[in-house]
Amino acid sequence: MKKFLLSLAAAALLLPAQADEGMWLLPLIKEQRFAEMQALGLKLQDYDIYNPDSSSLKDAVVIFGGGCTGEIVSPEGLVFTNHHCGYGQIQQHSTLKHDYLTEGFWAASRDKELPNPGLTVTFIEKIEDVTDYVLAALAGNNDPDNVDFVSAKYLNELARKRVGEKYLSDHPAIAVEIKDFYGGNQYYMFTKKIYSDVRLVGAPPSSIDKFGADTDNWMWPRHTGDFAIFRVYADANGEPAPYSESNVPLRPKRWFKINIGGVQPNDFAMIMGFPGRTNKYYTSWEVAERRDIDNEIRISMRELRQQAMLEEMLADPAVRIQYASKYASSTNAYKNAIGSNWAIKKHDLEKVKLAEQEKLIAWSKKNCETAYPEALLTLEQIVSDRKDLRFRSWMLDEAIIRSIEFTKVPTKVDTLVEALKGRDKEEQQQQLAQLTTAYEAFADKNYSPVVDRKIAKIMLKEYRRLVPAGKQPAYFSVIDQQFKGNVDSFVDYLFEQSIFGSHDNFNKFLAKPTAKALENDLMLLFAHSVQQENKALTESLKGFDAGYAIAHRTYLKGLLNMYGNRANFPDANRTLRLTYGQVKGYDPRDAVTYAYQTTLDGVMEKEDPDNWEFVVPARLKELYANNDFGRYGLSNGKMPVDFCATTHTTGGNSGSPVMNANGELIGINFDRNWEGVGGDIQYLPDYQRSIIVDVRYVLFVIDKYAGAGYLLEEMELVQ
Ligand code: ARG
Ligand code: ASP
């Protein structure tokens, strides 16, 4: 008996996933996690969540657009997602006269809902384990590069073959996809149904859905109402169809009930969605690589760029508007990298991974397995061998390509050059018109040559300081040869001389276009040289891919064997996952405790009418002053805004439904705390939190703030 207990304890020690850790694949939930979920408070059966043979909660979870998640909340195809997920669409519909970003938008009736060409909502119809099928295909496959087993292109061809081209052409809205899991040790096929008539129904003003903007991004306590509402339309048979006035709201298989009973600390919470990418199975060497190369370069380069950008934005309101979105997307990944390195250092994730490797090595010795320790040696070697290339590639990307906007001037000018050398005037005009379009796309309304010039000088100097001369794009040598190494004069010269340096220059060129001017254009040569260097680096780095993929697969196979098959979750890869945990605050620092819920009081505390990030709309202040919260308020008279939970989420989980123990919607996931983003590498139980907009705040804004309560009539509210 004692021995039995001991071995049980040993087995528990070997179990790799900590409580609340994990982004679980639905077909494996029952076996892998269901007991823990019930112990934590889940009241549903596994088949309520995922049922391969009939409809279940998973049918109410959708991919929203390309990279977000959404959920169906009514029998008439209404979808909730984040505002930042529908940002592009809302911006498209906005004009100076109807600025839906700033003012918000509420369709007063169905015919006022706005179509969004290109936007899709995707349902997952079927998930199948196709490991045997893929392995059989791979066995008969002649793959010189040895990477087919993780190649999206190859796997998707297999998926198409499996269902047959006839099936696909008979069902144009169905797409199939095979994805590799655990580094290519398992394969699942996803059958998807894609709806392409998706209309905008409602969006709060930016002062609610972007409240706190960049300052509060990745931060808890948070006070953002980051949500937007769309509706899926279908043809008369409920099938996907391109936009048409005759389309009707989709009658979905499933929709979420919405629970307005509120959340308490330690309540069970779970999230389904489409997390993009995690690196749970990094080796210690990859953790160090990520810390010292990727994150380090990203942080230091963006710091420089953003500082310059911000100076210009603060000095000129026009520039502030032009660069708001560029600045926001730059700081989003920058802050993430800071949080990532903070966590890697604070929790010594290098050592955590090393310990796992050593466990596997010891286990392999005992079991006479040689392949796993060998795979680890290979991974260590690869990381060491690619160091210089990786450094150069990250430097080129962060310091030059992402920072200097004129690396994006039109460079595909061969046919125009040919035309200018010839005599065909019509062809010349046509080619010039194309160049003009490309130039206008580059120097669009959000481009400021003043800002670009300033940033280019700073970044080019820094790049040249850190990357040795022989390892820079070839064209950069002119800086030394013709400008005595003076980057400022070089950049000034580029802007003065290049066709693309100003509208004047471009117009002068159009008035007298010559092949020579184009062929010798300095910005074009600069951009071209950067592209060449980028291509060369990418190619060289590719040389490591096969070796890496094979060793990584072997390492994971070792872990799966050691821990018992399926004891751990596969890294995120944009497939449907479930994560569960509890509603809970955290202690960020010594003697500081964060509560699990924020309220409108905090919005008022943060209010700053002089700072666009913290403006509070008058109507919201009025509701606050009158305590006019309707049925959405807390019993203590306050109005809830956001809450946080220990669920394991990452980028792509934005817009995901957050459910209670009964599978009812209690919030919409939209962010994480910066102290928790290291969870992409290793879940951090004391720090990792998903940031969620409370569904009561969502309903309050729709109903009380916007007066769009008619939308609630089609939803199913429970308490
Ligand atoms: N940090 C969240 C995420 O990674 C929200 C981003 C919204 N964008 C922003 N720049 N505030 O996507
Ligand atoms: N904000 C992220 C997203 O847009 C979510 C996260 O990174 O936690 O998907």
Description:
- There is one protein chain.
- Helix 12 (284-315) runs antiparallel to helix 14 (349-366) and helix 17 (414-421) runs antiparallel to helix 18.
- By secondary structure, the chain is an alpha+beta fold.
- Strand 20 (657-659) and strand 21 form a beta hairpin.
- The strands form four sheets. Strands 2, 3, 4, 5, 6, 7, 8, 9, 10, 11 and 12 form an eleven-stranded antiparallel beta sheet that branches.
- It contains 28 helices and 23 strands.
- The structure holds arginine and aspartic acid (ASP).
- Arginine binds next to helix 13.
Which descriptors would you attach to this protein?
eight-stranded antiparallel sheet; globular; binds arginine; binds aspartic acid; 719 residues; disordered N terminus; eleven-stranded antiparallel sheet; 28 helices; alpha+beta
Q: Roughly what is the average pLDDT, rounded to an integer?
A: 95
Percent range of helical residues: 40-55%
- Please, how many helices? 28
Uncertain segments: 1-14
Overall geometric form: globular
Element layout with pairings:
Layout (H helix, E strand, L loop, with lengths): L1 H13 L9 E2 H7 L1 H7 L5 H4 L11 E4 L3 E5 L5 E4 L5 H7 L6 H4 L1 E2 L7 E2 L5 E9 L1 H9 L12 H12 L1 H6 L3 E8 L4 E10 L1 E7 L2 H4 L3 H4 L11 E7 L13 E2 L8 E2 L8 E6 L10 H32 L1 H30 L2 H18 L4 H15 L1 H15 L12 H8 L3 H18 L6 H18 L10 H7 L3 H11 L5 H9 L3 H5 L2 H21 L2 H19 L13 E6 L3 E4 L2 E3 L2 E3 H7 L11 H8 L14 E6 L11 E3 L5 E8 L17 E5 H11 L11 E2 L1
Parallel strand pairs: 13-23
Antiparallel strand pairs: 1-15, 2-3, 2-7, 3-4, 4-11, 5-10, 6-10, 7-9, 8-9, 10-11, 11-12, 14-15, 14-20, 16-17, 18-19, 19-22, 20-21, 21-22
Bound molecules: arginine and aspartic acid.
